[in-house]
From TrEMBL:
<dbReference type="Pfam" id="PF13456">
    <property type="entry name" value="RVT_3"/>
</dbReference>
<protein>
    <recommendedName>
        <fullName>RNase H type-1 domain-containing protein</fullName>
    </recommendedName>
</protein>
<feature type="domain" description="RNase H type-1">
    <location>
        <begin position="68"/>
        <end position="128"/>
    </location>
</feature>
<dbReference type="GO" id="GO:0004523">
    <property type="term" value="F:RNA-DNA hybrid ribonuclease activity"/>
</dbReference>
<dbReference type="InterPro" id="IPR002156">
    <property type="entry name" value="RNaseH_domain"/>
</dbReference>
<dbReference type="InterPro" id="IPR012337">
    <property type="entry name" value="RNaseH-like_sf"/>
</dbReference>
<dbReference type="GO" id="GO:0003676">
    <property type="term" value="F:nucleic acid binding"/>
</dbReference>
<dbReference type="InterPro" id="IPR052929">
    <property type="entry name" value="RNase_H-like_EbsB-rel"/>
</dbReference>
Length: 129
């Protein structure tokens, strides 16, 4: 859902020359998840899962670009999802990418592939710091 939200924001930038901030992209992903849970008769109380630790994004040093990556791995699927986001010190999204890679990969290898995509994104956009 986060990757889809990034993809949607990227398309809005490309086709409508409009982009949202990182907070709105993440908030949209949360709303989509909430809608999914409601539509499928699930809610936070019924879901038997651990609450994730709250992690706050820390901006990079002024003049630098911070690139965050993630991989989604499901052993039942024949592919993994990779997401990359590049932001400046204000949290403005400078670039983002999402990709599906076909094959079965361990979570560790999936994360490594996401890092590779992040390096590629930085190089392709000319981010040197």
């Amino acid at each position: 859902m986060v990757v889809w939200s990034i993809w949607l924001d990227k398309n809005r930038l490309v086709f409508e020359n409009k982009a949202e901030g990182a907070k709105e992209v993440v908030a949209r992903a949360g709303r989509i998840l909430g809608d999914y849970l409601v539509c499928n008769g699930l809610d936070e109380m019924k879901c038997n899962r651990a609450k994730p630790n709250t992690v706050k994004w820390c901006p990079p040093t002024r003049g630098y670009v911070k690139i965050n990556v993630d991989a989604a791995v499901n052993n039942d699927m024949e592919f993994i999802g990779i997401g990359v986001v590049a932001r400046n010190e204000d949290g403005t999204v400078l670039a983002a990418a999402a990709r599906r890679m076909f094959g079965r990969f361990s979570p560790h290898l999936g994360e490594c592939m996401a890092v590779r995509e992040g390096v590629w994104l930085a190089q392709s956009r000319g981010f040197s710091k």
